[in-house]
Amino acid sequence: xxxxxxxxxxxxxxxxxxxxxxGFIGSWVVKELLHRGYRVRGTARDPADRKNVHxxxxxxxxxxxxxxxxxxxxxxxxxxxxxxxxxxxHVASPVSNDVELMPVAVEGTRNVVNAAADMGVRRLVFxxxxxxxxxxxxxxxxxxxxxxCWSDYEFCxxxxxxxxxxxxxxxxxATEEATRRGLQLVVVVPxxxxxxxxxxxxxxxxxxxxKYLMGTKKAYPNAxxxxxxxxxxxxxxxxxxxxxxxxxRYVCFGTALHRSCFLQLLRGLFPRYPITSKCQGxxxxxxxxxxxxxxxxxxxxxxxxxxxxxxxxTVICLQQKGHVPYQCLIMPYRRSSL
Length: 338
Fold this sequence. Notes:
This is NAD-dependent epimerase/dehydratase domain-containing protein. By secondary structure, this protein is of the alpha/beta class. Helices cover 38% and strands 17% of the residues. It has 12 helices and 14 strands. The strands form 4 sheets. A 7-stranded parallel β-sheet has the order 3-2-1-4-5-7-11, with helices on both faces. Strands 8-10-12 form a 3-stranded mixed β-sheet. A two-stranded parallel ribbon has the order 6-14. Helix 2 (24-35) packs across helix 9 (230-242) and helix 5 packs parallel to helix 7. The longest helix is centred in the middle third of the chain and has 20 residues, at 162-181. The protein is globular and about 60 Å long.
């Protein structure tokens, strides 16, 4: 990479576009790009919608942020949004198991790649998901999850995990189209991503925290999930964009936790919330955490946030935005020993 002063000058001259700019991850990508001095163009289906107002309050937004109307199924709107851009961060995607939305994710991604190539974009960062990596019942427990792993499409389809199907197909489509068009593509594969929100509305992954805090989830599954702080996921996006030798997939896995351990952390920080201690399927052996490797991202310099800190700051944000009540005794943050 270039030295700091020349890198700053280069960023100030670069225009980059973020699809889905008003969403949970997209908003943080915009914030980090502005912080690093880039000129940013964000896309949304309706830029004037109140759910995007928070973007205009970000530091640097007045001078270096513009919003454009764009739809991933409308190639002309994408080409207009990407005009003059050096790079594109394709974050937008329907987060749903609705099978009818699969074409939006897959064809929309093809459209993004082709529109970027049409407009001379040099580099595209695509946000995938670990649902495209770990959903494979035939994987050996000794397998280390890394960039070479893929979910089993038929298994995802049979179990109704159409979001995973869509993201797998979208990532493959992006790779195929980028290769065909000669566009530099890098893929970031985040897991369950939680953390403080910039947007006012509650996103799906942070609802995962809310449902346990509020006691609406009466029992937890005998299951393991991988979590990451949204700020780490966003730093991963910027690292793979700015390291021009970066290519291919980069898994961004913070911590693998059995749900009981996840709730233990949450309960230790906020003991006055009615967090369940009942396990579904406790007649079976406890599922072991996955083994995984972040080596490719670590080689680029990414360090991961302690999950206790992430959970603490997530809940404080949820309280401040009115998604959960202030009914707890807040415990001082201490680094977890899990």
